[in-house]
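Go through the following before class.
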Amino acid sequence: MASSTVINGVQGALLVLALLVFLGNIMMWIIMPTDTYYDKWLPHILADTNSTFFGIQGPIMLDFTFPILFIAAVGCIYLHLGKKRTSDSNIASKKGAYKFKFLKRPMIIKGLGIVTLTELALFTMFIALDVWYFSYYVRYWFTQVPLLQMQRHEKVWQTKFDRVAIVFGLAGNVCLTFLFYPVTRGSSILPMLGLTSEGSIKYHMWLGNIAMTLFTIHGSLYITYWTLTHRLSEMLNWDQHNVSNVAGEIGLLCGLSLWMTTYPNIRRKMFELFLYTHYLYIPFIIFFILHIGIGFACIMLPGFYLFVIDRYLRFLQSRQKVRLVSARVLPCETVELNFSKGRDLNYSPTSTMFINVPSISKLQWHPFTVTSNSNLEPDRISVVIKCEGNWTKNLYDLISSPSSLTNRRLEVSVEGPYGPAATNFLRHDMLVMVSGGSGITPFISIIRELIYINSTSQSHNIPKLKLITVFKNSSHLSILDLILPISGIPSSESCTNLDLQVEAYITREKGNPKDKLQTPQTVFFRPKPSDAPIYPTLGPNSWLWLCAIISSSFIVFLVLLGVFTQYIIYPIDQNTNKLYSYPKKALMNMLFICSSIVLMATGAFMWNKKRNSSEAKQILDMEDSVTSESSFGGDERELESLPQQSVIKSINVHYGQRPDLQRILLENKGSSIGVLVSGPKKMRHDVAAICSSGLADNLHFESISFSW
């Protein structure tokens, strides 16, 4: 307890430090468009940071790039310490956990979906920042109108039109600055705030829509301005010492192509088109930097810098083919894939893992919920995949007909798993889990986690569990067979103490089917010796390694940039920022950033890969012996005899009806009822509406659905 108290204190201090640095960074955003910044602050900043090593780019990185990277490094240390805490800390604050529960009360807002009061308040503050940024920059640029109007020999309103057009672009840059944080899957900033990447996708969508709206207005206004002033030839201008119009136009076209495919109907019906066009973010960012210059781009650099680190680490992990050991094929066109993993790989319930099967598509990566438990199944990690599209249908056909596989091996690559830094399900008296179709998968991981806690500790009060699941037909009831793992089953006594009630609703059948339901079939694979178990990309101390990569790569970048500026740029430019080519400087900066990240991340990855090689050989030897034994059907017999009844107190199947969610949720007694929902959009909205209606004060809503 003493060590836990010390760790909590250090974590609290790190959070305060990160918050203070962030508030200072936000203050710079607020003050930047004002006269105070340009007339008083900027001259002093330039005078105090005048350097032949970084030029005018130096103070911008000091004000906007360094603080966020510092917060990311602090976040890594914070999360590493969080892994050291005992499980008691997860329930220590149960009494006060809901003191501010009104901040998490769900609301349904058209265009935004389900949001909490906290999310709405933060979103409103962001819009206020963007409006502030826009209005003050308009005011600042309008002070230059008389001089510019005389120089250009145009009407005053035309010059003002030009100034408004440029401010739309500046406001779009604010959105772009925050755009990449939600999609940085291995981020240290998101979990420090209690967020996950999969749960933050909606923020990325909000920011992306606003950014592209502002950039589209920015580009359209400039084309209109050039037409009105008879200077349409400006569209072909690539200025070496100022803003490049051609680069901006190419970047805008890339952004528009990407943006159009994010329309919900297109994304759902043509997912491959949506996926492939999203790779246009690469030329979009490159031409954006070439358009505005690397100096101003340093304002949005930190978010993209962290994203590039994460993206490269994912690339390194995805190059390794992993050991797919077995699969359970269900009659409802659903399959459970079981991979070998190292014991150092720990993850939380509701985590997700991205999977690529080259024989189906070399470019497509699809996210699936991890259903296994890293404590209950230390050598296995599992995902459940339901046929809901061409890719999943092809995968199911491959696995359900193993004779079609060469040497009974399926080549698979993975990224992840990614999930919350911690979960607090024990703080509730009862958990009500509402799912539709494949939305049941995250709840399987939660149930397995509680089975493990119940089997290892008598000091925790395990909440009662009620699973409300909706299926189209009775064949989907076979998914309930996946609640228990194939291996790592705890004692019967610990299972009996778990209070789990299942209410299954079959919507398209009127009664109990006459035919007996088929049992899941197990398929065993023969992976190559080169196929590796899934390990944490950066080892058991991954957060410390990530902190080292962020810090060291940025230092290497600064060294490369300093040498380049001192010996190449400064002799020509003399810190005027007017003589050396903007595009060359931007391209060299991008090269330095990528080189420093590749160098340091590769070194960290290879060090941990070498460390894992000895354990991989032991796992390989063990799996070979297990596979030879199970080839005679031993595991099938074990699977059929799993003590499901000892875990599930009762299973009530309701045919030809849907659940009365309001009645089910309001009838539960207890001071704290955790309501988790995973499934179709309408189901999530219905549950959120009930929890926010005020009919019961003990309902605490959480949506854990993940959708691209």
Summary: The first strand starts at residue 106 and ends at 109. Residues 109 and 115 are 7 Å apart (CA to CA).
